[in-house]
Amino acid sequence: MSIFDQTKEKKVLSPQTFAHVVLRTNDIKPLRDFYVSFLGGRIAHENEFAAFITYDQEHHRIALLEVPNTKPRANTSCGLEHIAYSFSTLTDLLLAYRQRRSIGIEPFWCVNHGPTTSIYYKDPDGNAIETQVDNFATAEEADVFMKSKYFEENAIGVDFDPEEMIRRIEQGEKEDDLKKRTVKLKHVDGNTEHESWVGLTGLKPNRGDGQVQKPRTP
Fold it and tell me: Which residue range(s) make up the domain with 123?
């Protein structure tokens, strides 16, 4: 039997990796310059209507196409919500944040989702970009958390201040501790009810109220 006759499997063969994203635009040059700067990347190839950008061993990670009469992005339309890029450490995530700030690229949302600590940006066309670091050492641990009642109660996360995070790292706090999201639990001591923060997998909310967040849009 040929390997190509194996069509009765319940599960389709998964890809080896996610290769690239292609965005269309009505003004390619600002978008090209943004992504080269944002990703610390380089142009693999470009012409008057297309640009192929990479930042690693892949021939391109993002491609841009200038298409005439393309309309501006509408937040109310269906389609792609955001692109996400991962860093290996919290320090790297925050260093890239600082480097982007130095060239005028500011985030619009900084949030600890639980599975990840994430910083969101938008490109010149309004497309959202997430930069993140995993909060768990393994995918299995993240999977357990995502099936927990804590994630069910707040699957969006809690906001954090990246400058405060940098200050705490510089003072010697461990990354694993900074990535621990906390939840407010009620407990009774005698006849008195108290509220306390219990570390799980994210940060103590900088707002101090622990309220469930709604996703932010560019």
Answer: 81-218
Specify whether 108 is located in the same domain as 198.
Answer: yes
CA distance 150 to 145: 8
Does 158 lie in the same domain as 135? yes
* Residues 87, 65 share a domain: no
Check which CATH number belongs to the domain holding 53 and give it: 3.30.720.120
Amino acid identity for residue 162 in this structure: P
- What CA–CA distances, in Å, run from 43 to 19, 37, 39? 16, 11, 11
In order along its 218 residues, the chain shows pLDDT tens digits of 677 777 777 788 899 999 999 999 999 999 999 999 999 999 999 999 999 999 999 999 999 999 999 988 888 888 999 999 999 999 999 999 999 999 999 999 999 998 999 999 999 999 999 999 999 988 888 888 888 888 888 889 889 999 999 999 999 999 998 988 665 544 455 555 544 434 443 333 333 333 444 556 55
Question: Scanning the structure block, which residue is given the tokens 């990479």?
Answer: 54
